[in-house]
Design brief:
alpha+beta; two-stranded antiparallel ribbon; 8 helices; elongated
Length: 187
């Protein structure tokens, strides 16, 4: 609320480090949420006010003991139209998909995952380290320029572990390519 926004502003401007959580739709969406709390763009774009923004989702990790090789599955008689369509969509994004270990969650699971096909959760995130160009975009209300600049920092390699300028979905896709996340969790 606006009272919390004002207290946050006063704490930061008096030299205190403030870490907080907020519900938003993306890392850069946090800026709009802060505006909802009464923080102006001039405050948000000032040096040292925002140093980083993180947006995250927790995604299920497929059990390495019972997961199903998705490449083999889509070529089997057990493959459904939904499976084949998902594979087609993935290969349209990543034509050389077959060189990556794509794993699908087992519906029945095993003793290692207690029958769930899942062995935990992994973070998929967007991390934005605020720089001078971003501060200028924030202060001037140039939201589209901010997004384009941040996205321009990406190496544009889906398999890369370098997450600069990459969305939460791209981070999830990178983890899909390592076999950790089931393709159907990306929907």
């Amino acid at each position: 609320d606006k009272i919390t926004g004002d207290l946050t502003k006063k704490a930061i401007q008096s030299g205190h480090q403030v870490l907080t959580t907020v519900h938003a739709t993306s890392a850069l969406g946090i800026i709009e949420r802060f505006q909802d709390f009464g923080l102006s763009r001039s405050v948000l774009g000032s040096p040292d006010f925002l140093t980083g923004l993180i947006y995250q989702k927790l995604m299920p990790i497929v059990c390495p003991h019972c997961s199903i090789d998705f490449h083999k599955h889509v070529n089997s008689e057990q493959a459904t139209k939904k499976d084949i369509e998902m594979y087609r969509r993935l290969t349209s994004v990543m034509p050389n998909l077959s060189k990556f270990p794509i794993n699908m969650r087992s519906e029945n699971g095993c003793q290692h995952c207690k029958g769930s096909g899942i062995v935990g959760r992994t973070v998929c995130a967007e991390v934005v380290k605020i720089d001078i160009t971003m501060m200028q975009c924030i202060e001037q209300g140039r939201t589209l320029d901010l997004v384009l600049y941040w996205r321009g920092l990406s190496d544009k390699k889906p398999e890369s572990e370098n997450m600069r300028g990459k969305t939460c979905m791209e981070h999830a896709f990178q983890k899909l390519l390592t076999g950790k996340i089931c393709p159907f969790n990306l929907e």
